[in-house]
Amino acid sequence: MAAGEGGRRLVPLAALIRREAKAERVDSPSVRYGSAAQSKKGEDFFLVRTDCLRVPGNLSTAYSVFAVFDGHNGNAAAIFTRENLLNHVLSAIPQGLGREEWLQALPRALVAGFVKTDKEFQSRGETSGTTVTFVIVDGWTITVASVGDSRCILDARDGVISLLTVDHRLEENVEERERVTKSGGEVGRLSIVGGAEIGPLRCWPGGLCLSRSIGDMDVGEFIVPVPYVKQVKISNAGGRLIIASDGIWDALPSEMAAMSCRGLPAELAPRQVVKEALRTRGLKDDTTCIVVDIVPPEHPVGPPSPPKKINKCNCFFRNRSRDSSSKLAKKLSAVGIVEELFEEGSAMLAERLGNDSSTSVHTTSGLFMCAICQVDLAPSEGISVHAGSFFSTSSKPWQGPFLCAACRNKKDAMEGKRPSGVKVL
Ligand SMILES: [Zn+2]
């Protein structure tokens, strides 16, 4: 389910700037961050951008982006994604939106940006793949999109720790195992001589342990780049995000990672988390950590203080299922700590791109636009994302959003409707 469809109207730029300037509240939080990494294979990368503006030239529309990319089978996919993903996401957001509409448009733009980045990387014919955990912080609103098993956790100011991502690991995600199997993939362990099975569950062909990633041309296309997306609004008490690759999470449960750096400023906290992970497990894998503090304006330098008592029921350790994460968020919402604005993890593009009868799919020239790669389409070229879909019986096949032929082929391949391994670029 994509948020924010329908009812979008274009707003003149001058009116928008006036509105944004008015909305520049004195209670806007500031963002402080730090990062640390220990490399074993040279395949982890990260991105920090604190200078992004929703409206060019208007400093009151600033937002920040933080991301971790954990590459495998080489570093090309991770580097390509770091260079291109943000632009692809932004180009999928309609122009002229106010802040609230912009935030509502983000989940869908994230899906388009991830799929476009994957498609472009595959067209280069290079192997390798990458996880992505991509975090946009705008005021008190945090939007996280992820594929793979790098994670983002939220340590709210009162000490409640929650997971803002799910792990797309075949071993631990039964929904994803079922999806991959239904789409034509085989899930099993590596067999050694004598028939014994070893290691985690993997997908064949390819032998990848993840069910979602960007890149991975040499595995079936049911290993999809469609991200799990979650958007939350924290209270004006602030909070801390810890974004890290599995080098951290394989060594430390979420709570330990959060506790290990409490009381330290964001600039120093990631080093402490990495140190704690290495102390526990040694340097077995690339290990990357970004810590972001969302700080209320009255207390510009105060890191989260140690909580008096942690409520065990609300703590989130290594539970990887989507349902549990959803239940937890609802629980958090109920006590007013974190307001959940959006959550969706479906791998089906028809569900993620939604129905669109608004004008946002049209370019100014009156042409249609591909909802994934944003190329212009003549009316006869666009194929509705819902055409022939088993998943959205209520939608109309002539209704947008529309896809170009190449993106439609990619969608079919991801859903197992085209033989795996036949890549359409
Ligand atoms: Zn397209």
Textual characterization of the structure:
- This protein is of the alpha+beta class and 425 residues long.
- It folds into three domains: 13-171 and 222-347, Phosphatase 2c, domain 1, CATH 3.60.40; 174-203, no CATH class; 350-414, no CATH class.
- It contains ten helices and 18 strands.
- The protein has helices at 13-23, 76-91, 99-123, 174-182, 246-249, 254-260, 269-281, 322-334, 349-353, 405-414, and strands at residues 30-38, 44-53, 62-72, 129-138, 141-147, 151-156, 161-163, 186-191, 197-204, 214-215, 228-234, 239-244, 287-295, 338-344, 368-369, 376-377, 383-384, 402-403.
- The strands form five sheets. Strands 2, 3, 4, 5, 10, 11 and 14 form a seven-stranded antiparallel sheet that branches.
- Strand 6 and strand 7 (161-163) form a beta hairpin.
- Helix 2 (76-91) packs antiparallel against helix 3 (99-123).
- The longest helix is centred in the N-terminal third of the chain and has 25 residues, at 99-123.
- It is globular, with a radius of gyration of 21 Å.
- Zinc ion (ZN) binds at residues 370, 372-373, 375, 403-404, 406-407.
- Zinc ion (ZN) is lined by residues 370, 372-373, 375, 403-404, 406-407.
